[in-house]
């Protein structure tokens, strides 16, 4: 990038010097980036910087801007702007209070426009928005980062759903050593929420790092983790289907088929595909299903409709199916849950944040109590905060070690 | 996202209404995005819009901004700002001239700050910068997009390099049908440039789409494509190593070991790993190696050092090894090339853009002529434009159909 900038700024005036610089650089291996440069100023600041006391300093070179703020997910009221201060050099700065260990997302608001930090190359897309990220090391985020432990492989594979009549994409995590092992593995099916897709648990849930680290520490059994796409009218994540960029991610529940339960009823096709293509132990004892939000509702519905399939069920900030629905998957759901309880399972884990903005904390507790009353082994986990990824990563950290033991 | 915005804006004043709205939405499946909202205005515009005549309209809601421009890679002088015009509604717009078919990258410059388009969820990281993207359909970009053809799976796998003394990550594309096939496949090793990593060819090179489409049309043989990481001191892409976010991508040739040729000499470890773990035809006739820029230099060096390994070599806008280097991999490179030519190969393909900003077009032609003079089957492909991904995707489109036939 620097190379290109030099070239563009010195053209005409100092072309000869630029040429010499380029030639000096060129023999070692050439710049692979396209010559679409950032404003030169963006390259001169380092942002964000996590300081020793776990405060974080943000910097933005914006001498011409009238106002710059940070908007991040660590504030009491998530989504509130925190104004930055302009220095004499035109660089706006802000240092936070010390933050607890977590993976955080943030953006800048530059003269009213909300954007990622141009000095930070690390981003995550969450539904329809792209965020800049950073980590505060410690008990939580250490699990979300890469350590020198054996790494599992990750695969994006396509299966065909006869019921949904299309090829569909799945993310599969295989624990370290899978390729050489002669043993078969248990499987956790992990489902995303509304607005998400098969990539969400990997990108925002940090599944491969969490599983690598839990398994390396002996805290979780080596297991396969399968992350399908829960939007029944879609082949894959936005941008990865034949609709290409015309399928834009949105925080909407209006995707065709999102309510009709066909995805839930097609789930045995996914399980059969996984059992056919991977070294699994293909029985109820060695299968778990969990999901966040809409994926929690899916986990509830799927496991209730197929009571011989999963011995472990996890509902993370789950929605609950509408009882009066005319669709097969959720019809007579209470009767199905009763059958499921009678057939038995090893663990029904229900977690929710007390500040969940959808007011589902108490319904989640009531649901857990209902399952408990029917005699199954049920856990209810009440956490702080609301409907956020920091909770769902924590729920996975709590849930995964309880599986297949 | 909308849900969250409603909640935040109506709190206190209209909490009851908001609550009812939320409850109405909640049963179908809940919002999975964190409550870090974009400025509400960002959600009100659609950008970019590719119009019927292949012009493109960009929009940015920025009523408070003093100046807004687009900076994109379709302009004659790549990297030049194109000013946008402010409407009465505070929305800045620009419509381009008709563009030819391609995948384009762009950003906005808002009061001097270079940022992605907040209304466009689709981005690519190129080295240390994140860009917004769009496609113009047609002969080129149709290959770069997803169509309803059989899709190959993609894997991120870890191998151990004894020579480099670490676990390292590789991206592997497996052609559609691989899992069921009883046949073995040829392998193309595809190498990234300086500042890149094992993800670059997938993300910016669109390898899985190009191969899916070429194979479905019968233009290329079904083949495995292996994309290793060419930075010998690194385990994987920035953010995917145990250095985590402290390893920032940079357009630099100063990474430890980048010049010492140890990566090139360790390459047989990668080939052995692939032959052990995948259904390959493990001989020279069924192996190709190609790379862009630094990866072109690597392809030249690796194939010259191991003349019994590859029957097809592709140099895409390649750098060339420094002849006087003291390192084993590039020592006596001309003598090694002579041996390689004597042993024979099926195709030595060399491509470069006439406007390459590193002045490597004529050296590339001279190199191709040198190889031709030694008797091998050599092709030199001179293209328009410079050191850019649009060229490298085109080179792959040209090169892949010539392999293994």
- The value of Rg of chain A in angstroms is 24 Å
Largest interface between protein chains, with number of residues from each side:
A-B, 123 and 122 residues
**Approximately what portion of the residues of chain A adopt beta-strand conformation?**
15-25%
List unreliable stretches of 5+ residues of chain A: 1-42
How far apart lie the N and C ends of chain A?
A: 51 Å
Overview of the structural elements:
2 copies of one chain form a homodimer. With 405 residues, the first copy, chain A, is α/β, with parallel strands linked by helices. Chain A is built from 10 helices and 18 strands. In chain A, the strands form 3 sheets. An 8-stranded mixed β-sheet of chain A has the order 11-12-14-13-15-16-17-18, with helices on both faces. In chain A, strands 3, 4, 7, 8, 9 and 10 form a 6-stranded antiparallel β-sheet that branches. At the A-B interface, helix 1, helix 2, strand 7, strand 8 and strand 9 of A face helix 1, helix 2, strand 7, strand 8 and strand 9 of B.
């Amino acid at each position: 990038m620097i190379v290109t900038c030099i070239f563009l700024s010195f053209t005409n005036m100092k072309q000869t010097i630029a040429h010499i610089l380029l030639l000096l650089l060129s023999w070692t291996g050439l710049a692979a980036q396209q010559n679409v440069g950032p404003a030169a100023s963006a390259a001169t600041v380092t942002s964000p910087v996590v300081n020793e006391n776990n405060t974080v300093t943000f910097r933005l070179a914006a001498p011409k801007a009238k106002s710059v703020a940070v908007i991040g997910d660590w504030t009491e009221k998530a989504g509130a702007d925190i104004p930055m201060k302009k220095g004499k050099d035109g660089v706006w700065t802000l240092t936070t209070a010390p933050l607890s260990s977590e993976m955080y997302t943030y953006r800048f608001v530059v003269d009213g426009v909300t954007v990622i930090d141009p000095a930070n190359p690390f981003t995550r897309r969450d539904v329809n928005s792209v965020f800049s990220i950073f980590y505060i090391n410690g008990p939580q985020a250490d699990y979300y980062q890469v350590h020198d432990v054996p790494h599992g492989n990750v695969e994006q594979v396509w299966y065909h759903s006869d019921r949904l009549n299309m090829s569909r994409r799945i993310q599969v995590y295989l624990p370290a050593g899978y390729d050489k092992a002669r043993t078969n593995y248990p499987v956790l099916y992990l489902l995303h929420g509304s607005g998400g897709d098969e990539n969400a648990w990997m990108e925002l849930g940090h599944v491969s790092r969490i599983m690598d680290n839990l398994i390396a520490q002996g805290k979780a059994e080596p297991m396969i983790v399968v992350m399908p796409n829960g939007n029944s009218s879609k082949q894959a994540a936005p941008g990865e289907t034949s609709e290409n960029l015309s399928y834009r991610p949105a925080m909407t529940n209006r995707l065709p088929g999102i309510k009709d339960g066909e995805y839930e009823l097609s789930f045995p096709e996914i399980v059969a595909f996984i059992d056919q293509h991977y070294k699994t132990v293909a029985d109820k004892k060695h299968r778990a299903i969990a999901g966040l939000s809409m994926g929690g509702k899916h986990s509830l519905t799927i496991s209730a409709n197929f009571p011989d399939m999963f011995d472990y069920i996890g509902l993370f900030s789950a929605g609950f199916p509408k009882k009066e629905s005319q669709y097969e998957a959720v019809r007579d759901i209470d009767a199905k849950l009763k059958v499921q309880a009678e057939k038995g399972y090893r663990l029904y884990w229900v977690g929710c944040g007390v500040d969940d903005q959808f007011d589902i904390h108490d319904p989640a507790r009531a649901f857990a109590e209902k399952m408990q009353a029917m005699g199954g082994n049920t856990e209810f986990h009440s956490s702080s905060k609301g409907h956020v990824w920091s909770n769902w990563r924590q729920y996975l950290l709590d849930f995964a070690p309880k599986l297949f033991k």
